[in-house]
Structures are given as C-alpha cells and as structure tokens.
Amino acid sequence: MTNLSDLFHSGQMTDLLYTEKDLVTSLKDYIRAEENKLERVKRWADKLDSLSTSATQDPEGFLGHPVNAFKLMKRLNTEWGDLENLVLSDTTDGFISNLTIQRQHFPTDEDQTGAAKALLRLQDTYRLDANTISTGDLPGVKHKSQMTVEDCYELAKIAYSEADYYHTELWMAQALKQLDQGEVSTLDKVTILDYLSYAIYQQGEIPRALELTKRLLELDPEHQRAKGNLKYFEFQLEKQRKDKKKKYEMLCRGEGIKMTPRRQSRLFCRYYDNNHNPKYVLSPVKQQDEWDRPYIVRYIDIISDKEIETVKKLAKPRLRRATVHDPQTGKLTTAQYRVSKSAWLTGYEHPVIEIINQRIEDLTGLEMDTAEELQVANYGVGGQYEPHFDFGRKDEPDAFKELGTGNRIATWLFYMSDVAAGGATVFPDVGAAVWPQKGTAVFWYNLFANGEGDYSTRHAACPVLVGNKWVSNKWIHERGQEWRRPCGLTENE
C-alpha cells in the first residue's frame, strides 16, 4: 500500500500540489465563463421583463405600432432561439477535459488510507493529542493548517474501517469537541456520538459508552440503534457487576486465587531494614511478599499487643459509622457498601500514634506530614467494605481536593486482631487474598511512579463471618514524595 512517505519520497507529492494549482486556475476560468454567460442571460431577461410589462398594459395600442409587431415576430422567431443556444452552450469543456486528464494521476482510496495511517503513526510515535494535530500546532511548522470537523471525522472513519477503535475514539472525540466549540459543519453531533459510543464500547469502557448513548438520545430520542444500545449497555453493566460480585465472594471463601506455582516460587520473605535505616540495621523487621502484581508486602510483628490496646482504647469512644469519599462532591459520606465503624487518631494526642506514624515513614521511606491521620476501623459480624479504589480516578476531579495533598499514592494497613472466619482483604481484579494476622501490616502503592492510578489495586474487605476485626490504616498522599519516590516516565515504572 502506498503511504504518505512513499508519495513524498517519489516527488509525486510536489507534483500533486502543482496539479491542484493548475486545476484551481482552470476552475476559475470555468467560473468566469459561467458568470459571463449568466450576465448576458440576466441582461436579456431584464430587457424583456420591462418591455413585456409595458406592452401588456395596452396590448392593442402597442401592436398598433408596426415596428413593435415586427420586433415581436423577430424575437420569437430568432432571438429566443439564440438565447436557447446561449443557455445550452457548454463552458465546461476546458475544465472537465483538464480534470479528466489530471485525474489519472490523482491519489486513490488506498493512497488516502495510507496517508491517514501515516498521520496516526506520527500521532502515536510523538505522543501528540488529536487537538494538537487538528489545530496544526506542531513543533517547527511554518505553514499552519487546521483540520475541520469533516477532516477529523474522515480520519476517524478510516480508523473505524480498520477496526482501530482507539484512534476512532480519539478523532471522533476531536470532531465532537470542535462541534461543541461552535464550528459550523454539515455533520451533526448525533452521527459522531453514534460512532464514538460504539468505539468506546469496543474498548470495554461500557459506563462511558452508556453516557454518550444517553447524550445521543437527548439530541435524537427516536434513534433506533441508540435505543437498542442503551438497553444492551445497561444489561452488560449489570452482568459485569454480578460477575465482579461473584468473583469477590469466591475470593472471600478462599476460592479462585490466581497464583501459579511458578509465580508463587518468586515470592520471598526477608529481614528488611529499608536501605540501612539506622533504626533497623541492628534489628531488621520481617517482611514477606504477598503478591507480585500489584506488589503487596506484609510486615510481621510490626505492631505490639500493647500498642494495639492503646490504639483501640483511644479509638473506642469515637467510633462512628464509617464514611467514604463521594466522587461527585469530594466530600465524606456514609455508604451502604461500607459496613464498619471508624475513628481518626492524630499524632498529637498520644505518643504511641506518633511512634506508629514514624515507623510507617521509616519502613516505606515516604513522608507522613501530608498523609491522612491514622484511621481505626472495627468490623463486627457481617462487617465489610465492598470493592473500591483508595485513589481518586480521573473521572473524580474533586477527590481529596480539600486536603490539598494530591492523590493517595500508597496504603498501609495494620491488622490489629485475628479473625476466626472471614474478613480477608481481597483484590478481585487480580485474584489476590490477604488474610488478617494480628500484629502484621500490609503495604502497597496505589499509583505508578508516573502518577497514573494502578487499577489492579481495586480491593475489598470481606464480611466477617465469625469474630471481630480491628484494623488501622494510613493513606499516604503524593505531595512531599517528590524526592522520596521520583516520577517515572512510563506507566509501568
């Protein structure tokens, strides 16, 4: 297949520019000839219009003049025939013949597709967003060229025809953005939303596809395909929800844990001093790997029974129904999916809390000044916290905004009791289960080093079947970690 670079290197691209310039000149000649012809016809019509208007006011008196009678005969016999020939005369010959000759050198559909794919390759290689390309704001350009809604749409359609739904989404979204910004176009939002919602569905993002379908139906309530898609997407979401719940419940029972013996063999336990931290050089702590992706570690004998009793004693008078962050408002609210009681403890109110906070800082190497206070939670029989993320996602712009410390970079979780049955911490998307063990703590990062959320960290606290579950956790935030955990450039760093 010919692509943009093939044409360019063969010199044909330059030739095509001159071909188009020649055709524009030819087109303008044709327009001038048509305008001249039309002007003559208009003059004839205006002359006849005024003549016939005055003549029909007194037909007999008008035709009583022999010259008028003669001229009427002449006009009808000769001049209207001449006008007919003028109207039928073809001014297109020069332009059409030129166009026909040049068309044999024109790019084909295959060439156009090749050029579109080349543009998409450049977009990926140089990480350019669609808006940068569409506005022509590329580095080093002299001749800025902007893309219209139609240009974006056609590029998206080429990607769509190749089942490239990633680029279909990018360019349909750009076309929609330009329409939303008020660009005048022959295309309408309904057509673009139809493609866009389907491309997003094909990438597995059903909630977004559903939202766009709803927007489409607001514009065109009788759109049959959208009405069908709405029902289908809602059915798929409900099915996903049930499947996830089933997986979560299986993990809580100790079933369906996805860890092959080979992966298991790569998990280790060790004595750990966090890069020779002075506090732990002579008495390192016991650390064991619980899971590899996401990387979850457990610290054993990390909080003493005496410290646990102090924490529980401080928390008990303040235990209230646990709250969660509402992603819409960014505020704390109670939710049915979290059944527990919790309290917040600050480092100022008791030396033990300060010691615990310092211990977390020493072992993780992360700054605690920007972390949230120590949260203590108590789960009775049936107490649970359904699958959730600790970090704020991109569709939750106000999450933790009031704290001003950025997103939750990591989670530290102390187990302050053994649980007779149930109460595991499970990660349904990866099939991991971590069981409560008094005096231990587990730790994981919620964000990659580049600041993007690690969606594999979605986790849940399984319902307590028998017994009483006490935990305390520290949510550590991004601000203050800039030198302690430097940014990475790729998502997997």
TrEMBL record:
In the record for this protein, the TPR repeats are positioned at 190-223
Q: Where would you find this protein in the cell?
A: Endoplasmic reticulum lumen
Role noted for this protein: Catalyzes the post-translational formation of 4-hydroxyproline in -Xaa-Pro-Gly- sequences in collagens and other proteins.
- Taxonomy, superkingdom: Eukaryota
Per UniProt, residues of the Fe2OG dioxygenase domain are 370-478
Please give the name of this protein: procollagen-proline 4-dioxygenase
According to its UniProt entry, this protein's organism is: Takifugu rubripes
**Lineage summary:** Eukaryota, Metazoa, Chordata, Craniata, Vertebrata
What's a GO cellular component annotated to this UniProt protein? Answer: endoplasmic reticulum lumen
